[in-house]
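Let's practice the habit of predicting before peeking. Look at the sequence and jot down your guess about where helices and strands might fall. Then scroll down.
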Amino acid sequence: MLRYSLFFAFVMIGFHPLFSQNKKFDKSLKKVDASYAAGSLSKAKSGLEKLMKSVVAKMGAQNSYMPGLYIREAHISLAAGMLDGFDNILNNAITSSIAAYGDNSINYVTTLTDVADVYNEYGNYRLSREYILKARDVLKKSNQQSDYITARLGIVEARAMTGQGFCNEAVNLLSTVETYFAKRAVEKETITE
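Done guessing? Here is the structure:
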């Protein structure tokens, strides 16, 4: 019993720097997101570049943070009007997601959906719908459907359809996910007597 306790203690001591490092990364991500939301794109970009260097130095080039960092980089570049290498950034997000999670995971589907959403903001609705179709194919193959991801895919695809001029089809698509959002909109109020 003592051996197991000592082993567990050594494992926790060994992993403690990793946990504290992840908290540091999460704190830096919040700062980048806050700068982006405030409209300070240069500050967000410089913070993101520092964070990317730090993440790669500490965790390697293939880790679970990289797809999200590439998506943020694409958002910031798009908002700043710096479109040089925009497609490469999104391709890097996809390849890093495959490397980190595999091509049959729900995280890969989330990355594909994020990429499709960025292409909606960019105005390339055709590419957005292609990535949504890829995401739906992965969900069918892996049988990992959830209400949340189905609703999110529906919203992103409806935005792309609206951008292409298929408004009636977009409304029909949104009506299929309406019940999910209606359930989430109900507020539960607790009253203490």
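How did you do? Confidence is low (pLDDT under 50) at residues 1-20.
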